[in-house]
Amino acid sequence: MERDQYAENLKGESAMWQQRVQQMAEQLHTLKEEKEHRESQVQELETSLAELRSQSDGEKLGAERQDNESLSHLNREQEERLLELERAAERWSEQTEERKQILESMQSDRTTISRALSQNRELKEQLAELQNGFVRLTNKNMEITSALQSEQHVKKELAKKLGELQERLGELKEDRAQGVVLKVLTNFKSSEIEQAVQSLDRNGIDLLMKYIYKGFEKPTENSSAVLLQWHEKVCDYIASLQAAIHPEFTLAGQT
């Protein structure tokens, strides 16, 4: 607001100086015309003086000489007047140049102020754009945070459900393995079972239980001979029941 008022004041002062310069230019023009007129008169007087000087005889010589002196005096006055006018014109010219420089300086200041105001507007626009971008980014971050929180909540729920399902699946596998073991063991003679179990050490018993709970996977080559024999018996028994028992008891269906 202050810059606008300052610019208006500069504009008013500039107009005032331009008006004064115009007035001075008109006065200078008038002075030049007067000077030219005076010079013309001086030329005429000098011509007349030359004519008078060429006349050396006659009764009018005294009067002409008197007129010549009068004209010479008038000529000197005119010359002094012309000198004064020239000095005045020089002063006006110097003042005009100073005012011109002042006007140019004012115009330069006005241009600088205008450029500063323009840059200020651009900076305000850039600041507003940055603020809007920051607001948009903040809103986007809030949306992302909310989405992440929602996703984490869903993951927790899924993990919870998965844990429950895994626990239930373990129970079902255990129940199914126990059921299959019972069905297998009921078809073996008690003497065979007792002999097989007694032949296993603690490590062998652990391997046997893992073998049962893994769905009767084939033991490795490093397993005990009893466990390998047990696996062959179970496979033979299950193969004999493939047509009559549920497919879950087949080796191909075990997972």
Automatic annotation (TrEMBL):
Keywords carried by this UniProt record: Coiled coil
Region of interest called Disordered, as start-end residue ranges on this chain: 34-77
Composition skew (Basic and acidic residues), residue ranges: 54-77
InterPro entries: ARPC5_sf, GOLGA, GOLGA_cons_dom
Transmembrane parts of this sequence: none
Xref: Pfam families: GOLGA2L5 (PF15070)
GO cellular component terms listed in the entry, alphabetical order: Arp2/3 protein complex; cis-Golgi network; Golgi cis cisterna; Golgi cisterna membrane
Superkingdom per UniProt: Eukaryota
GO biological process, one term: Arp2/3 complex-mediated actin nucleation
Residue ranges annotated for the Golgin subfamily A conserved domain, each copy included: 1-56, 61-175
PANTHER family associated with the record: GOLGIN SUBFAMILY A MEMBER 2, GOLGIN SUBFAMILY A MEMBER-RELATED
UniProt-recorded name of the protein: Golgin subfamily A member 2
